[in-house]
Amino acid sequence: MQLGHNHVMAGNTVHAQSFSAKSAADDYLKKNAAKYHLANDLSGLEYVTTVTTDAGSYVRYQQTVNGSPVFSKQLTATVDLKGHVGLVVSDYMAYTSVERPSDRLTKDQAESKAGDYIKDKGKGKWGTTQNTFGYVILNGKAIPVYKVVIHANEPFGAWEAIVHAGNGRLIDKKDLNQKATGSGQVFLPNPVESSGTAAGFTDNNDADSPALNAQLKNVQLLGLDGTGKLAGQFVAINSKTRTKSSSLIFHYTRSDNQFEDVMAYYHIDTLQRYIQSLGFTNINNRSITANVNTYKQDNSFYSPTKMDLTFGSGGVDDAEDAGVIAHEYGHSIQDNQVPGFGNSPEGGAMGEGFGDFLGATYEDSFTAGGFGHACVAEWDSTSYSSSNPPCLRRLDENKVYPRDAVGEVHADGEIWSQPLYELASALGRDAATKIILQSHWSLTPNATFIDGAHAIKQADQQLYGGRNAKTIGAIFNARGLSAN
């Protein structure tokens, strides 16, 4: 039985001059061990890391059994600048016994069974297979398992299989690639939203047209490494075209596949620079690989195992639409802040909702008018949406939890994206994005919608002294997500 997800809005305080965030968190958890179903000495919790920001610190722990991880079960303690523990989000699961099988599979045997379970065709791999021994907790018992991640070519993607370490039975499997159906020079943000109409715009197998060319904008490509490639501080393009210019001038139209390379570079770089302009230098601050025109399907995804982005070329090429680029970058942001984020259905929906929020607010930042607002990926979706404007998803569907939850992460993501988008309307894009990003550090892989709402309220308290609490409460309460 799940015993975690407790919330504490007041707690331990120590002297600001001498405290360390970890010692403050340890002390608080020991004093409140019964509340969180922990051992009094915190055995069974292994310290992972402390993330320190100007607004506070986030101490992360991993649940363990016999020194091995309980997969995806973590606990975070949010500690303010005075050493006060203001919020605890816990996935910790209590158990009464540990299963000890008489025989244990070898790692090779576990990988073979995992391959069978995902129906891997065995025609090569696009990444190294990962295999880790640990535990899952089922019906109050700690079960020894192998977590095997296979980067398969067929079926394509990163697949995770949880295999019983004794009898080899499949306990769980999942497709780890977080996807958005999509499309994708530079358009700012895409030709539909920048022109204010979808009329006359069709993909036509990547053909140029006067209308589409009229939407091209000249931009600066910052942070290039000087090699002539589209590689720099925050993004490195990997593509079949191997785009390169010794003059560092990359002027193409969409009929040239190099156009999508420039789109991906510019928009990812711009998003990371925006995040840093908000004061965050420790969120995905790295050069992320973006695979462009290497995947022919009408899908894009972030791989948490390879930590890279892939943009499909089916339909409108995904990397021609800044909304799709931003959405996928949103997945990499959350995985960077909370490794394994979105392990639960609601966590997965929060991931999709945050990606849509990031995409929609990024798109809106280029256009003053209202056309396309509360809508994401207008150009990409011309191939599958008949609405005006065409939309991959909307952020104003007025869905209410739990009434409108259907158990599909993209649909349920609209429950989460709307309050985030309304927060940007109420507080401004910068303040809302800063609060939302700050809140992620409080979460765990299995965090729920309610955990997310509490974390946003806590982040506002840390950043702005709680001055937006009433607004946050009203916005989230309207969606059935109490932040109180």
Provide a descriptive summary of the structure in words:
The structure is a single chain. The protein is of the alpha+beta class and 484 residues long. The chain has 3 domains: 21-93, Roll (Nuclear Transport Factor 2, Chain: A); 107-176; 180-477, Neutral Protease, domain 2 (Orthogonal Bundle). It has helices spanning 21-31, 107-117, 191-195, 210-213, 258-277, 322-337, 345-364, 409-427, 429-440, 449-464, 469-477; strands spanning 45-53, 56-65, 68-79, 85-90, 97-98, 130-138, 141-153, 156-164, 170-175, 178-180, 235-239, 288-295, 300-303, 308-312, 375-376, 393-394. The strands form 4 sheets. Strands 5, 6, 7, 8 and 9 form a 5-stranded mixed beta sheet that branches. A 5-stranded mixed beta sheet has the order 10-13-14-12-11, covered by helices on one side. Pfam families: FTP, Peptidase_M36.
CATH class term of the largest domain: Mainly Alpha
The rough form would be described as: globular
Q: CATH architecture of the largest domain, please?
A: Orthogonal Bundle
Counting structural domains, the number is: 3
Sheet having the most strands: 5 strands, mixed
**Helix count?**
11
Tell me the helix content: 25-40%
CATH H-level homologous superfamily name of the largest domain = Neutral Protease Domain 2
Structural class: alpha+beta
SSE series: HEEEEEHEEEEEHHEHEEEHHEEHHHH
Q: How large is the radius of gyration?
A: 23 Å
Strand content: 15-25%
- The number of distinct β-strands equals 16
**What average pLDDT do the residues reach?**
91
- At CATH level 3, the topology of the largest domain is Neutral Protease, domain 2
Organism: Fictibacillus terranigra
Protein name: M36 family metallopeptidase
Pfam families: FTP, Peptidase_M36
Domain FTP: 48-87
